[in-house]
Write a structure and sequence with these properties.
single chain, 293 residues, alpha/beta, 5-stranded parallel β-sheet, 4-stranded parallel β-sheet
Length: 293
């Protein structure tokens, strides 16, 4: 039997997560009035019940009844009712962007205040839930398929989850350092494939460029030292409760060297079970777009 409370910031993907959990065999209920939660929880833990996997969506839309949630959860704890909390998080800038794209009002800002004010209020009201969460997923950089993969890992495969999600990001310095980068590495010390005519139009995703970059012994040495440092940092970040880590690897245009090394780092880290990971090449197509103008 499994009872999961899905909550978090408005706009962080709770509705999407509930749909995914439903596809995974969970009976899903969204925005149930808070006072009814103990009744539903009892039904899941009643021997012989057919509903043995329940996902319940709870968030700030519950209005005044949301204020009673902390006491309701304390009551479940006292009764030793088993439940898990999945908290979906996202950065303020991403949440604002999502609201602008959907042209919706934030539940706490209405149509009179700015969205960022509503987000600020919501963060304050959800502090106790975030602190109590068993799983904390930051969806700022996640694609839908990546969110599904993480949920499947937690709620279907039952793998241990440490709440850290890593983005390995290649970029071009001439387009600016990513504002959300936690670690930034400069690989412009390596020979630039741009000056090799037959490689100029290709990228670090192509074998010819990859072979050219990695043929330099300094590239291999850099990769080993980088992997060694990242492997040292990851368990310490997990211990400190960090949930989102952006490792940015940059070269001049973000097309050749940075893509090659970012891919190599991703391949070394991929497959670990105690964190999620994705790869993104921010500027890989920008040179072609710029020249076409």
């Amino acid at each position: 039997m499994r009872f999961v409370i899905v909550t978090g910031m408005s706009g962080a993907g709770k509705t999407t997560a509930l749909k995914m959990l439903e596809d995974m065999g969970y009976f899903c209920v969204d925005n149930l009035p808070v006072p009814l939660i103990p009744i539903l929880a009892d039904s899941v833990h009643t021997p012989g019940t057919e509903m043995n996997k329940l996902a319940l969506g709870v968030d700030i839309r519950s209005g005044q009844s949301f204020e009673a949630l902390e006491k309701v959860l304390e009551g479940l704890d006292e009764q030793e009712t088993e439940y898990e909390i999945l908290f979906l998080e996202s950065s303020d800038s991403v949440l604002v962007k999502r609201y602008k794209e959907t042209r919706r009002f934030h539940p706490l800002s209405g149509n009179s205040e700015r969205v960022d004010k509503g987000i600020e209020k919501e963060r304050e009201e959800l502090k106790f839930l975030k602190k109590k969460a068993d799983y904390l997923l930051d969806t700022s950089h996640m694609l839908t398929r990546e969110l599904k993969k993480e949920l499947n890992k937690i709620f279907v495969e039952n793998k241990e989850y440490k709440n850290l999600y890593i983005t390995v990001l290649s970029f071009g310095f001439k387009y600016g350092i990513p504002s959300d980068a936690d670690l930034v590495f400069d690989v412009r010390f390596l020979p630039n494939p741009y000056y090799i005519e037959e490689l100029r139009s290709k990228s670090g995703n192509d074998k010819e460029v990859r072979d050219y970059v990695m043929a330099n012994e300094k590239a291999g040495e850099f990769l080993e030292k980088l992997c060694d440092m990242v492997q040292f940092l990851l368990p310490n970040y997990i211990t400190e409760g960090k949930t989102q880590l952006v490792i940015a690897v940059g070269c001049t245009g973000g097309k050749h060297r940075s893509v090659t090394l970012a891919n190599a780092l991703y391949n070394r880290l991929e497959g670990a079970e105690n964190y999620g990971i994705r790869i993104e090449h921010r500027d890989i197509e920008k040179d072609a777009v710029t020249k076409a103008k």
